[in-house]
Write a structure and sequence with these properties.
Largest sheet: 6 strands, mixed
Low-confidence stretches: none
Strand order of the largest sheet: 5-6-7-3-8-9
Number of helices: 11
Order of helices and strands: EEEHEHEHHHEHEHEEHEHEEHEH
Radius of gyration: 24 Å
CATH topology of the largest domain: Rossmann fold
Shape: elongated
Oligomer: single chain
CATH superfamily of the largest domain: P-loop containing nucleotide triphosphate hydrolases
Number of domains: 2
Distance between the termini: 28 Å
Structural class: alpha/beta
Number of strands: 13
Length: 299
C-alpha cells in the first residue's frame, strides 16, 4: 500500500478529566476514500481538529504529507476541510462568502464560479446564506474546501442535512475526486451512509481505535448467516453444535446458522446423510458489526 498522505501517530487528547482520544493511530492514502466512523462523541471531530492544527495533542503527532499542518507551504492547495457547516455570515451571499475566502488564499474569482457549479449551487449563489437549509450549507462548505483544488479533502459529517439525492450526489462526487489520485477522509457516525462510498474504514469509540482496514476486509470480518430448510433440523443443529457452529431453530424445518460458510454447512449435512431442501446465504450486516465494535468496551 502507498504511504499515507495523512497520518495520526498515537494521538492522545484530554480535556480536564475527559480523554477525547487515546493512542489513536491511522492513516489515509491517495486515490482512496477513507471513512472515519464512530458514534457521536467518539472523538472523531477532536482527531480532525488536531490533524488540521486547530487543537494540540497531549501526546503523539498528526501529519499531512509528513508535515505538521502549520508547516505546510501552501495549505489552501494541499488540504480542503469542512468541519462545520454553520460558520457562515447569515447576511452574506454564498458567492460573496466564497469570494472573500478565495481572496484571503490568493485564489481568483473564476475559481469561485467553478466550485459553485461543482457543488450544484448555481441557482442559489446570490442568496443570503441565512436562508439556506443545512443541506445547502453543506454544499457551500464543500465549495469552500474545494477552492484551492486541494490534494486532500477532510470532511466532518458531510452528509448531515442532505436528502437521499444529495447523499448520492456527494457519494459520486467523492468517488470521482479520489479517482483523480486525491485523498478523501470523511467522518460519519453511520456506517450505512458511507459503505457505498468508502474504500477503507477507520472505526473508533470512546476515543480508541476499534478497526482500521479496507471495506472488503471489514465485510469478511463480519461474516454472514446461512439459512437452511431440512426435515432433520434438530439433528443438523446437533451436528453443527458439536463443531461449535451456532445454529438457531427458526421453524420446524429451518435453521439460521452463523459463523460458517454455506459449503461447510452442506458438507456437515452430507456427512450426516441429512437432506437439505433449501439453502440461502445472507450477506453480513455491516451496520450490526459497527454497533458491535463501537458498543463493546475493548482493552
Amino acid at each position: 500500500m502507498d504511504s499515507p498522505t495523512i497520518f495520526l501517530d498515537r494521538i492522545t487528547k484530554r480535556y480536564g478529566s475527559v480523554t477525547a482520544v487515546e493512542g489513536l493511530t491511522f492513516g489515509a492514502t491517495a486515490g482512496r476514500v477513507t471513512g472515519f466512523l464512530g458514534p457521536n462523541g467518539a472523538g472523531k471531530s477532536t482527531a480532525l481538529r488536531i490533524l488540521l492544527g486547530l487543537a494540540h495533542p497531549d501526546d503523539g503527532r498528526a501529519t499531512v504529507l509528513e508535515n505538521d499542518y502549520a508547516d505546510l507551504a501552501d495549505p489552501a492547495h494541499t488540504v480542503g476541510a469542512l468541519l462545520d457547516a454553520n460558520t457562515f455570515h447569515p447576511w452574506r451571499s454564498a458567492r460573496n462568502h466564497l469570494r472573500a475566502t478565495a481572496a484571503a488564499a490568493g485564489i481568483g474569482r473564476a475559481r469561485v464560479e467553478e466550485v459553485i457549479r461543482d457543488v450544484g449551487l448555481e441557482h442559489a449563489a446570490g442568496r443570503r446564506v441565512g436562508g439556506y437549509s443545512l443541506g445547502m450549507r453543506q454544499r457551500l462548505g464543500l465549495a469552500g474546501a474545494l477552492l484551492g483544488d486541494p490534494r486532500i479533502l477532510v470532511l466532518d459529517e458531510p452528509t448531515n442535512g442532505l436528502d437521499p439525492e444529495g447523499i448520492r450526489w456527494l457519494r459520486d462526487f467523492l468517488r470521482r475526486y479520489a479517482a483523480r489520485g486525491r485523498t478523501v477522509l470523511m467522518s460519519s457516525h453511520n456506517l450505512a451512509e458511507v459503505e457505498q462510498t468508502v474504500d477503507d474504514v477507520v472505526i473508533i469509540a470512546q476515543g480508541r481505535l476499534r478497526a482500521h482496514c479496507t471495506l472488503e476486509e471489514l465485510r469478511a470480518r463480519s461474516g454472514g448467516t446461512v439459512e437452511v430448510r431440512t426435515s432433520n433440523a434438530a439433528e443438523l443443529r446437533g451436528r453443527l453444535a458439536a463443531l461449535q457452529i451456532e445454529a438457531a431453530q427458526i421453524g420446524d424445518d429451518r435453521l439460521l446458522i452463523s459463523g460458517a460458510a454455506p459449503e461447510a454447512v452442506g458438507e456437515v449435512a452430507a456427512l450426516g446423510g441429512i437432506p437439505l431442501s433449501a439453502m440461502t446465504a445472507r450477506a453480513a450486516d455491516l451496520e450490526s458489526l459497527f454497533f458491535e465494535l463501537t458498543a463493546t468496551p475493548q482493552e
